[in-house]
Amino acid sequence: MLQPTISDALAARRVLAGQLPPTPMWNYPALDATAGASVLVKHENVQPTGAFKVRGGLNLLASLGAEERRTGIVGYSTGNHAQSLAFAARRHGVPCVIVMPVDPNPCKADAVRALGAELIEAGADMGEAAEHARRLAEERGMRLVSAADEPALVAGVATAYLEMFEQAPDLEIVVVPVGGGSGAAAACLVAEALAPRCEVIAVQAAASPAAHDSWRAGRLLTRPNGTRAEGLATGAGFALTQQLMGPRLADFLLVDDDRIGEAQWVLMRDAHTLAEGAGAAGLAALLAHPERFAGRRVGVVCTGANASEHELRSRLRLAGPA
Ligand SMILES: *Cc1c(COP(=O)(O)O)cnc(C)c1O
User: Which EC numbers characterise this protein's activity in its record (predicted)?
Assistant: First the structure.
């Protein structure tokens, strides 16, 4: 598979110009005080689909040939990749089928249907959903879109990091939540070209450590997949993103789900920001490893906002009465 380059990221920016405005990146003194670092939050939670993945989806749809546009695409996802593909497919007038593991986050499932995609629930987890999607794509002659092994997705997602280093060229560390790894791979690609002294640090949920363990081992591994943070819930490493992260990533941290819940609450309190679990995982890494970040200028990507109602209610209960 061809690795995307910084030129592909720049080309993706031209594709996305006029479709998605740059997202803001803000500093919040209250959050700095809590984290003990100088934190800039990159607000991908304000994307029209509620997550950064729409950048990749729009870029991928723009890259399809005439035959693929006619027959359509099949994606598998716990939610945000699905919304991204459905959103982009609708923009481009391309048929779109999404396979989700049975009993998905209802807010994400409803959003996919509302965007006009055909939603199929199949499989107990992402691995089984992916297998179902693979068979379906073959049966219907549609283009299967991987959750991460897609150069056009990574190049599209890289536009977020082009923006970040323009908004704050002096970032010392960028912290990126990881599921399949498209975000962290894109961050590595852009940092290498534009901010070679900036460290990229990836974060995954301790209950779903496949990308983390794959990166540490230097080969693709399969791991249990138990996190509640859907965006981080993958059970296997992906070849393309692992290759891109390989030598470029400075570190890969794990955080547990309770810490992620705490970070969701801190983002609400200190940054007036609604994040889903995966979207708060970057901040969770700062809270879990304060010594690693103390006094540094850190870009934290708030990757998404698509928390279910149940998740929101339990976060607020967790915070308790003031
Ligand atoms: C998909 C997703 C992630 C993980 O991104 P990858 O590119 O799969 O590593 C993190 N946060 C949110 C909100 C997501 O939707």
Answer: 4.3.1.19
